[in-house]
Design a protein that fits this description.
- The structure holds two protein chains of two kinds.
- Chain A is mainly α.
- Chain A has ten helices and no strands.
- Chain B is flat, with a radius of gyration of 21 Å.
- Chain B has ten helices and no strands.
- The relative contact order of chain B is 0.13.
- Chain B is mainly alpha-helical.
- In chain B, helix 1 crosses helix 2, helix 3 runs antiparallel to helix 5 and helix 4 crosses helix 5.
- Classes of the chains: A mainly alpha, B mainly alpha.
- Chains A and B meet through helix 1, helix 2, helix 3, helix 4 and helix 6 of A and helix 1, helix 2, helix 3, helix 4 and helix 6 of B.
């Protein structure tokens, strides 16, 4: 019974969340476009599938992965579980947290692979690029970017370096890559920065940031706990640009 | 449908593997509530399957048919109004944003930027949400204009980066982390496919635009402008 209540609550929550979108789309369709849509039944069923799918997906995540992910994030940042050198009791060295960096990278990669909005963009990109971009190629490139980003972000929380140094350096790299990358990939690469952090990644990564900031002495969770999402949005851009550059270089052609 | 189910299972497998591995190897405790984990995993797999099927049946064709209808109608005003409404309306109710705005109000209260009471916190959080929603509406409008005009995206994005860097210098330090994060939380799971299909649909229904080079990029703007707007909000409050 418990499961069914959970499902109903998440289901209503999802419907509530997509309501503004439905109102805007239907409103413009009826008041402004004033033309019948082709296949309205199929569209409505598809939309219902999206909402139903998302509700099941979120209910499943809340039941299984979020508690476990958050538990892991807090336990890994607990001083007693860190590497052996961390037990010396003295001042904290950044390298004491190697498990955390590894976990950050692993969780960044895997949550991104499961991110529904990235799947959507990847399907669209394959369709539009006539197969030049593969769904898995794009998803893995973005996931590698997020995993590096979250690991670097965890390192930043441990060392306490100001966030904007890293982000601004990231922008410089992105701009430099933009100059050399194949023109056609650029909009998709920029898009992948915003797409990555959504329903799956944000809760787990935010828990990691807050847990880390509250366990490292001298860090204030409310101030230093932020910023992991920002890393997870800049690094995928680099990764996708790099993916395009590598593909182009391997093919040895100038037009990609 | 079976193939889709298998695909979804493959999407989830890496997370399960990582979480279980860390639980057993690093924390060295059995996985708590194994039953819940299994039920949850099955729900996630079925959910993703429906989601992907629904994308192809519903959201993608919807976005594309609306783009074509607007292009055929030829009214720039209504198209831009729709773009703004879509960006603003879907962001203002975004749960991830509501959570971040609440956290931001805590930070502001702690830094005594605003008073410690609940009312001023709620006001601050609401102001922040409206700011981010406005910025996303603005972003989609700019993105749509870019598709119509065929401007190269990199100049606009690099200009945006320059704006962020300049704002970072002047914005109060407490807001910077939140501002940077707000760029990532704005675009929800149902909005992204619809906006992407809209962009691609617009680019394919306008002569001289390539759906691949011109159609993408709307999400990029939507994750850039909130950073600038939130830092501005932090400066003026």
């Amino acid at each position: 019974m418990d499961l069914i209540t959970d499902l109903l609550i998440t289901g209503f929550g999802t419907v509530w969340d997509v309501l503004p979108l439905v109102v805007i789309v239907v409103g413009f369709q009826v008041l402004v476009i004033r033309q019948p849509i082709a296949n309205p039944r199929r569209l409505a069923i598809g939309f219902a599938y999206v909402v139903l799918g998302l509700a099941l997906f979120l209910a499943g995540l809340e039941r299984a992965l979020f508690p476990l992910g958050e538990l892991l994030a807090t336990e890994l940042t607990d001083p007693s579980i860190r590497g052996a050198s961390g037990e010396s009791g003295g001042s904290v060295v950044w390298s004491d947290y190697y498990w955390v960096y590894l976990f950050a990278a692993a969780i960044g990669f895997t949550t991104t692979i499961a991110e529904p909005s990235l799947i959507a963009v990847a399907i669209k990109a394959r369709e539009v690029s006539a197969g030049a971009i593969t769904v898995w190629g794009l998803r893995i490139a973005v996931a590698v970017g997020v995993s590096i980003g979250v690991a670097v972000g965890a390192f930043r929380i441990v060392t306490g370096t100001p966030l904007h140094y890293f982000i601004i350096a990231g922008y410089v790299v992105v701009i430099a890559q933009t100059i050399y990358a194949p023109r056609s990939i650029i909009p998709l690469a920029y898009d992948s920065g915003g797409v990555t952090t959504s329903t799956v990644t944000v809760p787990v990564v935010a828990a990691l940031g807050l847990g880390l900031a509250s366990s490292v002495s001298g860090r204030n969770p409310v101030v230093d706990g932020f910023g992991l999402i920002a890393f997870a949005s800049v690094f995928p851009i680099m990764a996708v640009l790099a993916y395009a550059q590598i593909t182009k270089w391997m093919r040895g052609t100038s037009n990609c | 449908m079976l193939r889709l189910l298998l695909d979804s299972a493959r999407n989830l497998a890496p997370i399960l593997l990582v979480v279980t591995l860390f639980q057993l190897v690093v924390i060295r405790q059995p996985v708590p509530n194994l039953g819940d984990l299994l039920v949850g995993a099955i729900l996630v797999i079925i959910g993703l399957t429906f989601f992907v099927r629904g994308l192809e049946m519903g959201l993608f064709p919807l976005g594309e048919s609306m783009a074509q209808a607007f292009a055929a109608k030829g009214s720039l005003f209504w198209l831009l109004l729709f773009a703004f409404a879509l960006g603003f309306g879907t962001t203002v109710a975004e749960p991830a944003l509501i959570a971040v705005a609440g956290k931001a109000a805590e930070v502001a209260a702690e830094g005594s930027v605003i008073a410690e009471d609940t009312a001023s916190r709620a006001r601050y959080a609401l102001g922040l949400r409206l700011t981010v929603a406005l910025s996303v509406g603005f972003a989609i409008v700019v993105g749509v204009v870019r598709i119509l005009k065929g401007w190269p995206i990199q100049y606009l994005i690099i200009g945006g980066y320059a704006g962020i860097v300049i704002m970072t210098v002047f914005a109060p330090p407490e807001i910077v982390g939140i501002a940077y994060d707000s760029g990532g939380v704005t675009t929800g799971t149902v909005t992204v496919p619809l906006v992407t299909a809209l962009g691609v649909g617009l680019a394919s229904s306008i002569k001289g635009r390539n759906p691949f080079t011109d159609g993408f990029g709307l999400i990029a703007f939507a994750s850039l402008t909130p950073m600038i707007f939130v830092m501005a909000y932090g400066m003026f409050i």
